[in-house]
Automatic annotation (TrEMBL):
Domain Methyltransferase type positions: 53-140
CDD domains xref list: AdoMet_MTases
Protein name stated in the entry: Methyltransferase type 11
UniProt-listed Gene3D superfamilies: Vaccinia Virus protein VP39 (3.40.50.150)
GO MF, one annotated term: S-adenosylmethionine-dependent methyltransferase activity
PANTHER family: METHYLTRANSFERASE (PTHR43460), METHYLTRANSFERASE TYPE 11 DOMAIN-CONTAINING PROTEIN (PTHR43460:SF1)
Species of provenance: Prauserella flavalba
Length: 250
């Protein structure tokens, strides 16, 4: 027997959303992964680096899965629960975790790192990345691309034609060049995302808070109930994420 709307809502509205672990969605939602294997490529680059900086590391989950750290590894994060989670997983391996804001400047000297990385940064400050990179150093990152989860965004917020164009990879590459970086590689993919119950949608929107800014169950209860019925009827709500792989050299 399928679970009731109220049961699913209560469960998802009270489940913890700390860190950047999405295992709570196991069996309830799926997302295709980009073909390039960011974490695997990140591991290769970290193994060759002497001093690396990971910006907006979340709970450190991606770095924690890398087998070998460079002699110097610093990770920044702004959200206190994530700072604590990153410290627990990264400090025992010798990394330094620094709590920062997501605004410039980065709290590091110029030319301090030969590798700067980031997975899904909320903001990208190209001038600061260029400043802290050594000559010949590399920025390697996976960014959220344009129109990510747009089916979900517009379901709750209605048409957002201007916002849909944000995070365009060609514009990001142009901004990187304007900051004095040489863009070595830019790749983009659009990936299928499936939600199998309304609890998965609620939990995702509570965790990835910029998808539907200001989302609360109470404020969107009517649309949530309609979406619950849609998922019960069709078995799934389908959206798409966009991902950009970008590599740039100073």
């Amino acid at each position: 027997m399928s679970r009731s709307f109220d049961d699913l809502v209560v469960e998802a509205a009270t489940a913890p959303v700390d860190g950047w672990d999405f295992s709570w969605l196991g069996g309830r939602a799926t997302e295709q992964r980009p073909s390039w294997g960011y974490q695997r490529q990140l591991g290769r680059r970290l193994a060759r680096a002497s001093a690396a900086l990971d910006v907006q590391t979340g709970g450190g989950e991606v770095l924690a899965g890398v087998p070998r750290f460079p002699p110097v590894l610093v990770a920044t994060e702004s959200w206190p629960p994530n700072v604590a989670a990153a410290a627990r997983s990264l400090r025992p391996r010798g990394a330094v975790v620094v709590e920062t804001t997501d605004e410039p400047p980065l709290p590091f000297a110029g030319a301090a790192f030969d590798l700067v990385t980031s997975r899904h940064p909320a903001t990208v400050w190209w001038e600061e990345i260029a400043r802290v990179l050594r000559p010949g150093g590399t920025y390697f990152a996976q960014h959220v691309g344009p129109g990510t989860m747009w089916e979900l965004v517009e379901y709750f917020l209605g048409p957002q034609p201007e916002a849909r164009r944000k995070r365009d990879p060609e514009r990001e590459a142009a901004d990187a060049r304007a900051a004095g970086l040489e863009v070595v590689d830019v790749r983009s993919e659009r990936l299928r995302v499936e939600f199998f119950d309304i609890g998965a949608v609620i939990w995702f929107l509570r965790k990835v808070i910029w998808t539907v800014p200001g989302f609360t169950v109470d404020a969107h209860l009517g649309r949530l109930r309609e979406l619950h019925e849609l998922i019960r009827r069709d078995g799934v709500f389908t959206a798409h994420s966009a991902r950009t792989l970008i590599e740039a050299r100073r």
